[in-house]
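Morning!

This is the sequence you dropped in the shared folder:
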Amino acid sequence: MSGFAGASRLYGQVLLLWHAPRAGGSGVTISLGTETMIKTFAILAVATASLAAGAAQAAQQWPASIVGNWSALSNQTSLTVSITSQTGGETCNQIAGTIGSDTLLGFYCPGSGRFNFLRSNSPSGTYQAYTGNLSETVFGNVVMTGSFVDYIDDPEGEFNFLASPAE
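The structure's back. Tokens below.
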């Protein structure tokens, strides 16, 4: 194709140019007319605005409060997380309640869905630290997902945690 001189064809406002391939490239150039370029930029602007609106909505999808009972699975052990209060804070709120028969104290951030709480009891003190985020399932349900660190039980280590609103 070294002797290929080139050709072109106009399709509406799109001009296709065939030419000899450039080093590392193809032999086709696409040229858009001015009207088509304006329409393309308008479509991109609308798409960008839609994405920005979607991101703002996604940032506000978490519930304002997580007070209530949650059915949890903590390293393959079923238990109930009962959040009885959520107070204060502009960005994050203090939460308190029980996990099983132990005390729960921590925070929840409605803007991000982030949570963190400590589990403690009288003889041992604090012995587990939970951290994670709320997540939305494919069915639209909100669940707590994350992990916890166990400081005193055998085996010590980091384990999985999942909780959903109790029915």
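Headline: The longest helix spans residues 34-59.

More detail when I'm at my desk.
O.
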